[in-house]
Amino acid sequence: MNNEIAPVLDILEELKQECKVISKAQVELRTTLAEQLSNPKGDSVKTQESMQIHLSKETQAKIKEHQLFVLEALSESSKKLDPKFEMLQELISKQ
Protein backbone atom coordinates (compact mmCIF):
# COMPACT_ATOMS: atom_id res chain seq x y z
CA MET A 1 0.00 0.00 0.00
CA ASN A 2 2.93 2.36 0.66
CA ASN A 3 3.93 2.01 -2.98
CA GLU A 4 0.61 3.56 -4.04
CA ILE A 5 0.89 6.39 -1.52
CA ALA A 6 4.52 7.30 -2.28
CA PRO A 7 3.75 9.11 -5.58
CA VAL A 8 1.06 11.17 -3.88
CA LEU A 9 3.46 12.12 -1.09
CA ASP A 10 6.06 13.09 -3.70
CA ILE A 11 3.50 15.27 -5.45
CA LEU A 12 2.52 16.91 -2.18
CA GLU A 13 6.19 17.62 -1.41
CA GLU A 14 6.56 19.15 -4.88
CA LEU A 15 3.50 21.31 -4.24
CA LYS A 16 4.97 22.39 -0.92
CA GLN A 17 8.17 23.49 -2.67
CA GLU A 18 6.19 25.30 -5.38
CA CYS A 19 4.19 27.13 -2.70
CA LYS A 20 7.45 28.25 -1.07
CA VAL A 21 8.68 29.58 -4.42
CA ILE A 22 5.38 31.38 -5.00
CA SER A 23 5.43 32.86 -1.50
CA LYS A 24 9.00 34.08 -2.00
CA ALA A 25 8.06 35.69 -5.33
CA GLN A 26 5.07 37.38 -3.70
CA VAL A 27 7.27 38.77 -0.90
CA GLU A 28 9.75 40.08 -3.47
CA LEU A 29 6.93 41.67 -5.45
CA ARG A 30 5.46 43.30 -2.34
CA THR A 31 8.90 44.65 -1.44
CA THR A 32 9.36 46.06 -4.93
CA LEU A 33 5.88 47.59 -4.86
CA ALA A 34 6.50 49.15 -1.45
CA GLU A 35 9.80 50.62 -2.66
CA GLN A 36 8.23 52.03 -5.80
CA LEU A 37 5.20 53.37 -3.96
CA SER A 38 7.50 55.26 -1.61
CA ASN A 39 8.97 56.93 -4.74
CA PRO A 40 5.82 57.37 -6.88
CA LYS A 41 6.32 58.10 -10.56
CA GLY A 42 2.81 57.74 -12.00
CA ASP A 43 3.35 55.14 -14.74
CA SER A 44 5.54 52.94 -12.57
CA VAL A 45 2.59 52.39 -10.21
CA LYS A 46 0.41 51.27 -13.12
CA THR A 47 3.22 49.03 -14.36
CA GLN A 48 3.60 47.46 -10.92
CA GLU A 49 -0.16 46.94 -10.65
CA SER A 50 -0.09 45.20 -14.02
CA MET A 51 2.84 43.06 -12.87
CA GLN A 52 0.99 42.13 -9.69
CA ILE A 53 -2.14 41.15 -11.61
CA HIS A 54 -0.04 39.11 -14.05
CA LEU A 55 1.83 37.36 -11.22
CA SER A 56 -1.46 36.70 -9.44
CA LYS A 57 -2.91 35.11 -12.57
CA GLU A 58 0.25 33.04 -13.07
CA THR A 59 0.10 31.94 -9.44
CA GLN A 60 -3.56 30.97 -9.74
CA ALA A 61 -2.88 29.04 -12.94
CA LYS A 62 0.05 27.20 -11.34
CA ILE A 63 -2.01 26.35 -8.27
CA LYS A 64 -4.88 25.09 -10.43
CA GLU A 65 -2.45 23.01 -12.50
CA HIS A 66 -1.04 21.42 -9.35
CA GLN A 67 -4.50 20.82 -7.92
CA LEU A 68 -5.53 18.98 -11.08
CA PHE A 69 -2.29 17.00 -10.98
CA VAL A 70 -2.88 16.00 -7.35
CA LEU A 71 -6.51 15.10 -8.04
CA GLU A 72 -5.43 12.89 -10.93
CA ALA A 73 -2.79 11.19 -8.76
CA LEU A 74 -5.32 10.65 -5.98
CA SER A 75 -7.79 9.23 -8.48
CA GLU A 76 -5.18 6.81 -9.81
CA SER A 77 -4.25 5.75 -6.27
CA SER A 78 -7.92 5.28 -5.46
CA LYS A 79 -8.39 3.07 -8.53
CA LYS A 80 -5.50 0.90 -7.39
CA LEU A 81 -6.63 0.75 -3.77
CA ASP A 82 -10.38 0.20 -4.28
CA PRO A 83 -10.05 -3.46 -5.34
CA LYS A 84 -7.78 -4.12 -2.36
CA PHE A 85 -10.29 -2.58 0.04
CA GLU A 86 -13.09 -4.62 -1.53
CA MET A 87 -11.08 -7.82 -1.07
CA LEU A 88 -10.35 -6.84 2.52
CA GLN A 89 -14.04 -6.19 3.20
CA GLU A 90 -14.93 -9.58 1.72
CA LEU A 91 -12.34 -11.30 3.91
CA ILE A 92 -13.63 -9.51 7.00
CA SER A 93 -17.24 -10.38 6.23
CA LYS A 94 -16.32 -14.04 5.68
CA GLN A 95 -14.62 -14.21 9.05
TrEMBL record:
<protein>
    <submittedName>
        <fullName>Uncharacterized protein</fullName>
    </submittedName>
</protein>
